[in-house]
Amino acid sequence: xxxxxxTWFASQLFWLAVTFAxxxxxxxxxxxxxIQGVLESRWxxxxxxxxxxxxxxxxxxxMDAEYKASRELTQVEASAILAxxxxxxxxxxxxxxxxxxxxxxxxxxEAQEKITSARGQAMEDMEDVAADISLEIVRKLAxxxxxxxxxxxxxxxxxxxx
Length: 162
Description:
The chain is mainly α. It has 2 helices and no strands.
């Protein structure tokens, strides 16, 4: 095998060193700076994205705090509105209850007066009818002559006792 021939070792080592040196220089000058540039741009992009994410997270937290504060304020306002509406409704109910109660008392008094008047009228009518009936009964059964005034007096006395 010619590669293992010791006479060619020196020239093979020379060309190995020259090739290695050329490849090393090419890699050091061309490839490695490009790789470093790509890595640095990736790290810059990652750092930028992390900074954006941190900024957006802070904004989101601020918006969340603002939302919570707004919601609490709205709940307090709603509670105040409900309490106010409840108080107004209660006042309205009390006012109208009092008005209705007064109207009902007036109507009850009027009805009581009408009932009393009708009762009195009915009693008078009943006394008249009772007097007429008793006169007829006494005339037919006992054949006694009684005046209307006497019959009315007896009926009034009987009604008062009852």
